[in-house]
Amino acid sequence: MEEDRIAPIFKGRHILLTGGTGFMGKVLIEKLIRLTEVDQIYMLMRTKKGKDPKDRLIDIFTNPLFDTLKRRMDVQDMIKRIKVIPGDCGLIGLGLSAEDRKLIIDNVSLIYHCAATIRFDEKLKRAVELNTRGTLEMIKLGLECKNLEMFGYMSTSYCHLHESFLLEKPYDPPADPHKIIKSVEMLQEDEVEGMAKKILGTLPNSYAFTKALAEALVNEACETQNLPAMILRPSIVIPTYEDPISGWTDNLNGPAGLMIGAGKGVIRTLYCDQKSYGDFLPVDVAINGLMVCTWYYLTFNDKEHYIVNFTSSQDIRVRWEEIVVMGQKVINEKYPINGILWYPGGGMTKYRWLHQLRAIFFHWLPAILIDILLFCLGYERILWRVHKRIAKGMEVIEYYANNQWDFDNKHAIIIRKTLNNTEKLKYKCDAEGVDIYQYFENCILGARRYLLKQPDMMLPAARRMMKIMYVVDRVAKTLIYGWLLYWIMGLVLPTFFSSEALDKFYSVIRRIFWGK
């Protein structure tokens, strides 16, 4: 058995982590505590929704993601490995006290900057403050650290959207990040928003814009101030593949959200090029890659390969069409969702006019009718509001679903080739042995368990309801299509047949269907 060379690189270290309460941050914390002997993880965390950072940390460990770890060690022992640092990446100086700043400067040797607002429709001022200025403030802190060996910046492979083929190299930013930061600091939010379209240019949202600016700041610090940094660009991060549990997620971003919406019978049309493909990366694979890259950087001091694209489409390509087909098959036949509105169905089209026509008949008209019924029965009207939120969400992803990008990952492959067999199993970061259908099964089951809070004991009821809704769907479609056909025939047939012949025809139809 070959030895694990990656875990020892973290032994005894003090690591500063931002974004620790986020999707990737939780997985990183779990892996660092379970797989390594890291001494202290300093978590930069702000008060949120009235909860102070220490209470938020306790809440994190109640997540099912940590169940495997809790079988090995007590929660209090886990908490001892983490020191909460009150702060906010959206503030100048990160909102750190002088004491906490000194603690970090004196002790931290690794920084993982994962904090960001990932909302595509975030107000530009807020996105700049958190994603761009926050990164600049982290760089300043990193340069002050006496023992810093690596600054890991978590970027995204979808921040240089003008490049249809993204190389593992620095790119010029869409604007001067320093000037953008100064500008938004001087202006009010509504003033910035009024100029947002002009500032963004061809970029579709504030997320891509501010992450590209942040990358430029890290590159600048590497070149001019010798910041020891790696820029890590994961693609669309989706539920866990297998470690520590399969299909875990804490959000509805990406394909999981689409499959759940479609599985509830709410989403019935998508504006998307069926034949194109997105690039997806399970979150545990992304974090494995981060840990492997840390080991590689510290062991080989390879400054040439400091930008790494964490992508999968060079190994596995899954078309949007295939995702929909797999999702429908799993939900309809194996893991239906409780509380469905209608039998799942519908599809996608690359023609906007057809999508909008379908949306009228399959989204908006049913929403109006059902809300009227709810109002008459004394219940709250909800479906119109739900579809407005869905429509807004769909608008955000339409740009990505109807454009195609490819990614070079030569640096990632070079790093993967240095792993021995033990490390390849323990820190899986390739597509070897992956069963795509099984993975999406696990994603849907995970969404049921961890997001919708529907335990497996509720599956029999969900399957019974799915059968009922199948019959209702078929009966409703037969009646609607039958009425449309009858109406069309009433318009067309008089052109070719006499009224006497038509009366006889309608008499026969009435006897067949109504016995009259």
From TrEMBL:
Residues covered by the Thioester reductase (TE) domain: 17-288
Q: Which residues cross the membrane?
A: 360-379, 475-497
Q: Which residues form the Fatty acyl-CoA reductase C-terminal domain?
A: 362-454
The record ties this protein, via Pfam families, to: NAD_binding_4, Sterile
Q: Name the EC number(s).
A: 1.2.1.84
Cellular component terms (Gene Ontology): membrane; peroxisome
The entry's keywords:
Lipid biosynthesis, Lipid metabolism, Membrane, NADP, Oxidoreductase, Transmembrane, Transmembrane helix
Gene3D superfamilies, A to Z? NAD(P)-binding Rossmann-like Domain
Q: Which branch of life, at top level?
A: Eukaryota
- Subcellular location(s) of the protein: Membrane
Entry GO MF terms: alcohol-forming long-chain fatty acyl-CoA reductase activity; alcohol-forming very long-chain fatty acyl-CoA reductase activity
UniProt keyword Membrane present: yes
Task: List the catalytic activities from the record.
Answer: a long-chain fatty acyl-CoA + 2 NADPH + 2 H(+) = a long-chain primary fatty alcohol + 2 NADP(+) + CoA
| One GO biological process term | long-chain fatty-acyl-CoA metabolic process
Q: How does it sit in the membrane?
A: Multi-pass membrane protein
Has the keyword Lipid metabolism been applied to this entry?
yes
Q: Which family does it belong to?
A: Belongs to the fatty acyl-CoA reductase family.
Protein task: Catalyzes the reduction of fatty acyl-CoA to fatty alcohols.
Q: What is this protein called?
A: Fatty acyl-CoA reductase
The root-end lineage is:
Eukaryota, Metazoa, Ecdysozoa, Arthropoda, Hexapoda
